[in-house]
Amino acid sequence: MDIQDRSFQFAVRIVKLCKFLNEQPGVSRTLSHQLIRSGTSVGANIEEAQGGQSRADFLSKMSIALKEARETHYWLKLLSAADVVKSDLIAEIQTESNELVAILTTIVKSTKEGHHG
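The structure corresponding to this sequence follows.
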């Protein structure tokens, strides 16, 4: 599965998690809004990067995707640490979040070094 497919499947999981959070009272909804924005932005920026008009454009979009993936990782970690969601319920999506950050870090680094794009 390539990065576009993985980020899309990740976004689907984020949407489902946010639907669950929106059904909960209180702070869950506020955190859900942050999570849905960053979690779905990862794949959207990767898609834009694929249509990039230059290596600089590709790098810019992939760098934004990486930033959004890091932010998503933060929100997932917070949900777990603050006991908003049981850790075991989001362990898989946290792992995927970590992996997306690692993959995007590699893509951004190799693009900067001129090995991609």
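The mean pLDDT is 94.
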